[in-house]
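Note to self: the last two entries modelled the partners one at a time, which told us nothing about the interface. This time every component goes in together.
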Amino acid sequence: MTGDNWSLRESKTFDRNSIDYIRSAAATGLYRIRGFGAKRRVPSFDDLLMKGASMSRYPLEGYRERCGTDVALGTRHASKPIELKIPVTISGMSFGSLSANAKEALGRGASEAGTSTTTGDGGMTLEEREHSEKLVYQYLPSRYGMNPDDLRKADAIEVVVGQGAKPGGGGMLLGQKITRRVAEMRCLPEGIDQRSACRHPDWTGPDDLAIKILELREITGWEKPIYVKCGAARPYYDTALSIKAGADVVVIDGMQGGTAATQEVFIEHVGQPTLVAVKEAVQALCDFDMHRKVQLVVGGGIRSGADVAKALAMGADAVSIGTAALIAIGDQDPSLDEEYKKIGSAPGFWEDYQAGNDPAGITTQDPELTARLDPVLAGRRLANYLRVLAMESQTLARACGKSHVHNLEPDDMVALTVEAAAMAGVPLAGTNWIPGKETG
Amino acid sequence: MNSLKSNAATIDLCERTLREANFALQASNGSGESGYFKVTNPGGAHAIACGLDAPVDVEIRGHAGYFCAGMNKLARVRVVGNAGQGVAENMMSGLVWVEGDVSQCAGATAHGGLLVVDGNAAARCGISLKGGDIVVKGNVGHMSMFMAQAGRLVVLGDAGDSLGDSIYEARIYVRGQVGTLGSDCLEKPMGAEHLAELGELLDRSGCEKVDAGEFRRFGSARNLYNFKVENLDDY
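The predicted structure of the combined assembly is written out below.
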């Protein structure tokens, strides 16, 4: 755009995104609402490296010596914990924000790979129950579609206190996506904006939550694992209080976690990075002697088997993926370049999940667009991707001499930056220095 | 709701655990003589008679704690005493009748059924109601019917401040005074349809002698259904 004119210098403070934001706010008087997740750079698993093995640690033979990836979630109180083949779960995403075909694809892919998927703010659909071998039912502040029959059909229950993209904010589904079916499931009129509550209607705080968990267990015969999910606001205390309230599983979602729609200022400026979330949550579990007794699932920006391995090495029992799962089933597909152009976007930049005009047929309720997504093919793609995540995490675990991915430990890693060392609690490479940790 | 038969099975919560009590209640299909239970010595225990899924009759003789009769389906539960927070929360159908007062969030998110409170209800009665009906013979606290989506609340006494804040399509009938109305809630005229449905609710709640014509109706102004910047001061 600036050609060869080397005298032009773009401001780092008022860059083009900032100028566009100011102009848009000035023109409309509205803040920006969008989907996807945080786009700012934050310290992440990319800032950690695995050490591998040498003289002091013996590696395992790839493809020959066994490296387990299985995980059981909900072993504390539930009589029927969830047994997963891989430590990667699909996080909660609602029917309403996603099409029925997309929900079916997530269920198919997760089931084929031996893991669980999760409902969302809007209740359980028949399609996702049928196609999800293991389904976690979210218990949300809105209670849209909430009913005891579906509660009993679920394999686990996730009490949602918050999510990484917007800790402290409620759900948002704008009128253009509220079709008759979505509206009926939520007991609301068609076409109105649905701003879900940010607090639960009948309990407040950890003491009440303990009683709510008791009620959920009594209704479901103490069979099902009860998860508590929080956005990474104050991960140490959120984890400690979840343990105190009786959770079987704590789910902590870092700020890189995605959303179907919320204010951009929320997405980019509220919450803490996933690295911080894992470290503080594990610290709380250890302090209360609950590490590995209450399982920890961590989400927020997980993309690769390396991310999985590093989260587990920091002490998580499993991870959850949302945005990555949508990409696996077809979101941001370069073959849709022309379609994205028509709506002012491009593959890799698409973020207007709230608009309901997703050319990939995933974050939409438009019948013509949703028909573009083949749930069988998309489910197969997700299963492939999940297998790659598992294989990559095994590869790194074997390289560190571990016969199970859960045997990875913080000592298997170093940090590339001072910031990551402090946030993850692993030493800066080439030193034994962990900023913020007292020595001696 | 009539009193229980004299041969109802007794579950004494001094002698049996909550799990044992709820297991027995949940196991009954409500048929014949096996569908009548008396729960004694509740002692304010939480989650009594929750998750029932059959037309059983349960009488709780004493005070109940949080979430009594939570997520009720089909069952008829009577509390001869007071009930704590979230009584009949997310009820789907059936009848829950409390002879005393109830704490906050009574009938929260109920999709169906009828909750009758002979005494008063604290704050946020009927919060996020989704189709159930609530009749309170005394007063209700502030923020009652906050974000209520569908269903009806009938108050024979007074209603606290911010009644019906951010209400959707639910209906509120109040006979006494109303403190203040919440955002997007306004008084609406009483038509024949409203008098008829109110009369029917009063009849089912043992208030046959109460005149439906003494009530005022409140509901949504529907101004906040879609975000408009000109409504900013209402948020």
